[in-house]
Amino acid sequence: MDNLNNSLRSSIKDKIDDVSPHPKTKAETDVTNTHTEGDVLPSIKSKPERNFDSELKIENPKLSIQSLKAWFSGKLALKDINLDVKENCITALIGPSGCGKTTLLRCINRMHDLTPSATADGKIILDDLNIYDKQTDPVLIKRRMGMVFQKPNPFPTMSIYDNVAAGLKLNGIKDKNLIKEIVHDSLHGAALWEEVKNDLDKPGISLSGGQQQRLCIARALAMQPEILLMDEPTSALDPIASSKIEELMNDLKKNLTVIIVTHNMQQAARVSDYTAFMYLGELIEFGQTDQIFKYPKKELTERYISGKFG
Ligand SMILES: Nc1ncnc2c1ncn2[C@@H]1O[C@H](COP(=O)(O)OP(=O)(O)OP(=O)(O)O)[C@@H](O)[C@H]1O
Ligand SMILES: [Mg+2]
């Protein structure tokens, strides 16, 4: 996406942002990236050797989740979640099945609203816009956030090219050269261009699972999202395809903010800057990934990341 220059970027945004402007707050880059390539799950130590903030405070969060509760048919699925997400970082959500990770992602982009009988309460502030304010248009929120699901879901009847172009066309962009440029840049951004550049007319579903997942990432990138939400994006992929997506995430965070749900502890430790551990609808512990995996403060976190349950 580096090729996508600023004027093109703002031109796309002008065309797709037909509701209201959303000023972008630049986060201070005061926290170091805590992972290195090839990290494996570090061993848990009882006493911190490094000084981690006792109360981690994210300055100028891109997204601030405040007192969020969510219900399905009156049953509480998320209990008072408070979590700040730092811009241009990767935040991993971990926790056992059913603890509310997907529900949290779906609250963030207001997909939760689409489930009959689902309700939510609290605030989610994107820059300075409350996503749950009555006046906030959910369509605008969805445009500012891309989502990638566990199972790659390219549009089955569309070519590779049209899969990436679909959202732009749907938003009324007609300039063929502009669409071509964005498709090209998005496929580059998703590290797929070299593999598909001669097959753009072939069906999206003719690609391998790993390629389909990168096609879905390209489709999301074409809309110039500020936040990319990924729900177990590699769980259906082999290790090579998974590592391509992990490398890609590292590149993507230069331009956007990533929140990833993963059951793979090694993956969370390798790719993320921050980790949030959830259990039974609650946020148990949040911190720099290094701290969570090496020096968890809560016994429950330690038991989960060391595989004692889950
Ligand atoms: N559409 C739905 N209708 C009713 N209850 C739901 C629905 N989706 C999720 N739930 C409930 O909400 C809770 C949280 O589910 P969620 O899918 O967010 O968990 P998760 O952490 O993503 O789990 P997994 O790791 O298995 O994907 C669970 O108790 C689940 O049964
Ligand atoms: Mg889930």
From TrEMBL:
What PROSITE patterns does the record tag this protein with?
A: ABC_TRANSPORTER_1 (PS00211), ABC_TRANSPORTER_2 (PS50893)
- Biological process (GO), any one: phosphate ion transmembrane transport
* Any one Gene Ontology cellular component term annotated for this protein: membrane
Chain segments carrying region Disordered: 1-47
Q: Where is the composition biased (Basic and acidic residues)?
A: 11-29
Alphabetized UniProt keyword annotations: ATP-binding, Nucleotide-binding, Transport
Whether Nucleotide-binding counts among this entry's keywords is: yes
According to the UniProt entry, where is the signal peptide? none
Enumerate the GO terms in the molecular function aspect: ATP binding; ATP hydrolysis activity; phosphate transmembrane transporter activity
Record-annotated ABC transporter domain positions: 63-305
- Please note every region of biased composition (Polar residues): 1-10
Q: Where are the transmembrane segments?
A: none
Tell me the Pfam families matching this sequence: ABC_tran
Entry protein name = ABC-type phosphate transport system, ATPase component
Give the source species. Answer: Candidatus Nitrosocosmicus arcticus
Recorded name of the encoding gene: pstB
